[in-house]
Amino acid sequence: MPQTHLATVVGSVDDRSPAGIATAVGRLVSDGTLPAESRLPTVRSLARELNVSPSTVTDAWRRLQHAGLVVTDGRRGSFVRARRRPDEPERFWQVPVDPDAYRLDLSLGTPDPRLLPPIGSALTGQHDDDPVTSYLADPTIPELTRLLHGTWPFPPGALTVVDGAMDALDRLIAETVTFGDRVVVEDPGFPPALDMLDLAGAEMLPVPMVEGGPDPDAFAAALAHRPVAVLLQPRAHNPTGWNLSPGRADRLAEFLDGTGILVIEDDHSGDVSGVPLESLGTRLPDQVVHVRSYSKGYGPDLRLAAVGGRRDVIDRLVHRRQLGPGWSSRLLQRVLLHLLEDPVVATSVAQAAEAYRHRRTTLVDLLADRGIRVPGVSGFNLWMEVADETTALVSLAAQGIGAAPGSPFRVAPDDRHHLRLTISAVNRDFAALADTLADASRAPGRRRGRA
Question: Distance between CA atoms of 276 and 151, rounded to whole angstroms?
Answer without folding.
Answer: 13
